[in-house]
Specification:
It contains one helix and 16 strands. The chain is mainly β. β10 and β11 form a beta hairpin.
């Protein structure tokens, strides 16, 4: 069958498409229990429904109840992707997918964006246990860790607390070097963070190698700790961000892209 390029090409989405199941747990953050906020792209601009809108930066994470979902003690969130996340050693740093939370750095040079020495973070919460599955029934645990480094960065040309969007969007499918630890960031300015991110939008990276799975469609995050934590989004590293690859489709076939419920600016 011959394929024709769509007039309005639809790109493969690198982000979670559906919430399969969600349990808020015992102590989620009040008002932050809409699991659909974890679908689609991470936030670039936050707080549109509040008196304090601003860009998302490592010093100003997403904070709206329409932007992040909370998982309390004993709770979990399970999402599905439209196409499989593959274990690909050719991905940057071998990372296969990213999870975006709402952690941020305390600004030691407010409002300029300077990480303290020693660094301090907020919005981290308890440890998250990250599991993956091919079929949504059989699960493999990758690791249990805090959803801290690296905080989301929406734009490469914005200040730490700008009130209008930047012009250079970061790539939410590009990981930051996972060998960087919190202590390495002591005293760094926002400008130095932008250089370190090197075009990435941040996020916590996970590698499927060692799971025995070549590809997965499902990710589940469990809270087996006492403290709640929040999630903004999930991203497949191997699928280009929107604006990258267009699908080819047979004539007459209409492809629709699922959009995030609450769109960022």
């Amino acid at each position: 069958m011959n394929a024709t390029l769509l007039a309005n090409p639809i790109e493969a989405s690198p982000f979670a498409a559906d919430v399969v199941d969600y349990d808020a747990g015992l102590n989620p953050t009040a008002g932050f229990t809409d699991a659909d906020t974890a679908l689609g792209s991470p936030e670039r601009f936050t707080g549109e429904l509040s008196p304090f809108p601003g860009i998302v930066s490592p010093f100003n994470p997403a904070f709206g109840s329409d932007e992040i979902v909370s998982i309390g003690a004993g709770g979990f969130l399970e999402v599905r992707f439209d196409q499989a996340i593959r274990d690909d050693a050719g991905n940057p740093f071998g990372i296969d997918f990213l999870i975006f939370g709402n952690a941020g750095f305390l600004d030691a040079g407010f409002p300029n964006g300077v990480i303290g020495d020693p660094p301090s973070m907020f919005g981290v919460g308890g440890d998250a246990t990250v599991q993956v599955s091919q079929n949504g029934l059989d699960w493999v645990t990758i690791e249990t860790r805090m959803l801290d480094l690296m905080p989301t960065m929406g734009y490469s040309d914005s200040g730490a607390f700008d009130l209008v969007p930047g012009t250079i969007e970061t790539d939410f499918t590009r990981p930051v070097d996972p060998s960087v630890v919190l202590g390495d960031l002591a005293g760094k300015s926002l400008t130095q963070l932008v250089d370190l991110y090197s075009g990435s939008g941040g996020g916590i990276g996970f590698d499927l190698s060692g799971t025995g799975l070549e590809e997965v469609l499902y990710i589940r995050v469990l809270n087996e700790s006492a403290l709640a934590f929040e999630i903004d989004a999930f991203a497949d590293v191997s699928v280009p961000s929107p604006g990258g690859v267009a699908f080819l489709a047979p004539p007459g076939v209409l492809l629709l892209r699922r959009r995030r419920r609450s769109a960022s600016l």
